[in-house]
Structure formats: C-alpha cells, structure tokens
Design goal:
Elements: E1 17-28, E2 31-42, E3 46-50, H1 57-65, E4 72-77, E5 80-81, H2 87-93, E6 95-98, H3 110-117, H4 126-136, H5 138-142, H6 153-165, E7 171-175, H7 183-198, E8 202-206, H8 210-216, E9 219-224, E10 227-233, H9 234-237, H10 241-247
Parallel strand pairs: 3-8, 3-9, 6-7, 7-8
Antiparallel strand pairs: 1-2, 1-4, 4-5, 9-10
Length: 251
C-alpha cells in the first residue's frame, strides 16, 4: 500500500498533480519534526494526513504556507517552486491555510474579516465570492456585523474557512477543523468540506478525527515521528489493521 511518486498523474490513474512535496525536512533546533516526507495532492482531490500528536502534520502545513522554515526538500504548486516565496506570495499563487486555532481577527466584524482576506485581489468578483461565503455559511450571513471574538467556536471555524475562500484558493490547507467543536458542528464542518470539494476545491486535510477524515478523503498518508509509514486510497486504509488499531479503535 505504497504511494505513487508525488508527481504521478492521469497516466497512473491519479489526477493531474497540483501539489508536489519531495523529501521535506523541517527542524526545530536539533529536533527533526518532519523527516524526508514525500507526497502529492492531485487536482480536485481531498488528501488527508493522519498521525498522533507530534507526528509532523501541522509542521508540514506550516512549511507549505511559508509560516515554518524548511530545512530541505522541494515544494511545488502547479509546478511553481514555493521554497523561495514568502507566505503572501504563496497565497497569491492560490494556496490558503486555515490554521489550528482559527486565528481570526476578533476586533473586526465577520464581514471585515472576509473582506480583509481579499485585500490584495484586483478582480471585480469579490462581491460575488462574498455572496458564495454567505450561501455556504448562512449563520455567518446572519452575524456579518458581529465582532469576531463574540462568535462561537464553530462560527469562528466557519469564518476561518470563509476567509480562506475569499483568496480564491486553488489548494486549501485545513488544520484540525473539528478541534473543540460539538459533534453536531463537526458534522456540519465535514459537510462543508465535501461541498467545497464537489465545487472543485482541492483540499489537504489534517484532522484529529481519523474516521471522518478517511471517510471524506480520496487518499491518505499515515505519519509517525515525522515520516510517512503508510499511504494509499482512504477506503483501503480504513480497513488496514494498523490503521484500525491505532486510529479507529478497532482490531
């Protein structure tokens, strides 16, 4: 159950590659948090990274978005080398990161948070995209003039996702979107993930709820101590004894 080469495309039965990660290393002082990780995300896919706390999942997302320095390795979005680009340039290329903890602006309204995310855009479709966010999250539309720090945890997560969508991202990095949410809101967030993907958004998902992540994803990579130890179609990994024992509560 090995992963194909990160650049594998339609000729091998995989979608056209959008994101390519090759031999990625991320270090904090003398600790290697990510050790030679390679994987790919195809256009239109949901790919999930699964592993225990400290496996390197969030470090990978931070390295992709430019928030964490890369020790070595190759990162490419649609063939464009990301390594030398600062975070804001990566956003302009179509990469949006929804970090763990949401990190919305609490002293701005819901609408101001969304409009701020589109500040660098020069197209005339900002209003259209804002309407799409209201349609996707009616609760945010109801609270558009409410301060960000007065929203519930679930509403803040919706706002964080909506803010990323306002950048017109080609690739959405979602880091623990269900963390701290009530079960009903978790189901709602995953319905949104499916809906976004059906609309053509490619997603790289890091999620503590391995069962839901494997249900929604097309492919998955299992990480342990900074390395990929298993990879393959999500449906097959759900039945893998190692995955069931470690992450799904089964034998």
């Amino acid at each position: 159950m090995q992963t194909p080469h990160p650049g594998a495309g339609p000729s091998l039965g995989y979608p056209e590659p959008l994101l390519t990660v090759e031999e990625l290393w991320v270090s904090y002082d003398w600790i290697n948090a990510v050790r030679g990780v390679s994987f790919g995300v195809g256009l239109g896919e949901i790919v999930t990274l699964i592993g225990a706390n400290g496996a390197g999942k969030s470090s990978i997302l931070g390295a992709l978005s430019g928030l964490i320095p890369v020790s070595r390795g190759r990162l490419a979005l649609a063939g464009e080398d990301l390594a030398a680009l600062p975070a804001h340039r990566r956003t302009a290329l179509g990469l949006a990161h929804v970090p763990e903890g949401r990190m919305i602006f609490g002293n701005l309204t819901v609408e101001e948070n969304l409009r701020l995310a589109a500040y660098a855009r020069r197209d005339r479709e900002v209003e259209e995209d804002l309407k799409k966010v209201w349609d996707l999250f009616p609760r945010l539309a109801e609270r558009r003039r409410q301060w960000g720090n007065t929203l519930s945890g679930g509403e803040q997560q919706m706002l964080a996702v909506g803010r990323a969508l306002m950048t017109r991202a080609r690739l959405l990095l979602l880091d623990e979107p269900s963390m701290g949410l009530a079960p009903m809101l978790v189901r709602e967030i995953f319905r949104v993930i499916r809906r976004l993907n059906s609309a053509g958004v490619t997603i790289l998902l890091v999620e503590q709820n391995a069962r839901l992540a494997l249900e929604v994803a097309h492919r998955a990579y299992i990480l342990e101590t900074g390395r990929v130890v298993l990879a393959g179609p999500a449906a097959k990994l759900r039945e893998h004894p190692q995955v069931r024992s470690a992450y799904l509560g089964g034998g």
